[in-house]
Amino acid sequence: MGSLTVFLVEDNPLIRAHLIPALQDLAGAQVLAIAESEGEAVGWLAGHKGGWDLAVVDLFLKEGTGLGVVNWTFGRLARQKVAVLTNYATDETRILCRRAGADAIFDKSYELDQFFDYCQRLSTPDAGTGVDPRAP
To answer: In terms of residue numbers, what domain contains 13?
Structure first.
């Protein structure tokens, strides 16, 4: 099985500089592309419909919103997951993200361990069933 392929939507270069190697080291993930705005993200997604396993999306971007990106992923393949990684994971934000189609929401301030655990689970077939959670 290949590594988990990630599309990262994050406009903060410092966060990207730490997140990308952590995804590689902790989840064996390969970051395919990065977008800093909603328009960039939607453009990349439109050209790579089935070409990613996990989209990691921040809510506040240079232009547009991460919520718009999450909305745009509606109708993606069942194996493709969307995780919101934000500093503003309030109860209301979590509800809005779920309604928009996010599979998981994590707070950057205190839920990074849970985020990396989630990524690791996606990158590893279920040991009990032998089923790849990314399979279509």
So the answer is: 5-123
